[in-house]
Amino acid sequence: MILLTKLILAHLVGDFILQPQSWVEEKEEKKLKSLKLYFHIGIHILLMFLFVWDFSEWKLILSIAAIHFLVDALKLILQKKKTKRLLFFIDQLLHIIAIVVAYYIVSDESINANELITENNLLLLTCLLFLTIPVSIIMRTIFSKWNIEELTKDNESLEDAGKYIGILERILVFIFIITGHWEAVGFLITAKSVFRFGDLKESKHRKLTEYILIGTLISFGIAIITGLVYFVLI
């Protein structure tokens, strides 16, 4: 397993720490004609050899490097302005999958699906998934009785920022609860209250204040109840 960790570490260093933004921009402009693309792959090869420090693994290292090149090349060819963000995450996911698959093919270790797909793991995944989009839809349905657009029309904010903030805070609350750190839940509520206090003070809008308070309490309440249900079921 230490070999897999070293390979992933080499990827993180090569893709994020030792890849200047100027290289990324040149690759996006010149695509496969960019020398920086090939320098980038060369750095990955050197890092893997350096971190692994075992030349008997050269087939594994070169295989990962070849797949890395193909994924990067395909990304550069397909990338458009609208798909840049999506392809970034797909690109990173494919790199990690390639490293893991190559490692298990070459090594004597095997993935035991029975150890991964357990009742507790499935329950944990279900709870985390529930706290994302499903709860967002539930909360939107609850607030549908009020004209939310009218309340927030004068408040500038990033598109869908509230939804993502809600998802992140619910997941954090859930993690804090199942790990037994209830004090962190209080800290998170306090931190959010501090950030929101300025907006509420400046708005002088009682309905907006009530909307934010209700939303916060429902969001935190659902996350807390989900955490407690998880405890009971396991």
Ordered list of secondary-structure elements with their pairings:
Elements (H helix, E strand, L loop, with lengths): L1 H16 L3 H10 L4 H18 L5 H21 L5 H23 L6 H4 L2 H12 L2 H10 L5 H5 L8 H18 L3 H22 L2 H28 L1
Describe this structure in words.
The chain has two domains: 2-106, no CATH class; 115-233, no CATH class. The mean pLDDT is 87. Helix 1 (2-17) packs antiparallel against helix 3 (35-52), helix 3 runs antiparallel to helix 4 (58-78) and helix 4 runs antiparallel to helix 5. The protein has helices at 2-17, 21-30, 35-52, 58-78, 84-106, 113-116, 119-130, 133-142, 148-152, 161-178, 182-203, 206-233. The chain starts with a helix and ends with a helix. By secondary structure, the chain is mainly α. The chain crosses the membrane at residues 37-54, 60-78, 85-106, 122-143, 171-191, 211-233. It comes from Microcosmobacter mediterraneus. InterPro entries: Phage_phiKZ_Orf197. This is DUF3307 domain-containing protein.
End-to-end C-alpha gap: 29 Å
Radius of gyration: 23 Å
Tell me how many strands there are: 0
- Strand portion: under 5%
Biggest β-sheet, characterized?
A: none
Number of helices: 12
H-E string: HHHHHHHHHHHH
Counted up, domains total 2
- Low-confidence regions: none
Structural class by secondary-structure content: mainly alpha
- What would you call the shape? globular
Mean pLDDT, to the nearest integer, reads 87
Percent of residues in helices comes to over 70%
Pfam family, one: DUF3307
Keywords: Membrane, Transmembrane, Transmembrane helix
InterPro entries: Phage_phiKZ_Orf197 (IPR021737)
Protein name: DUF3307 domain-containing protein
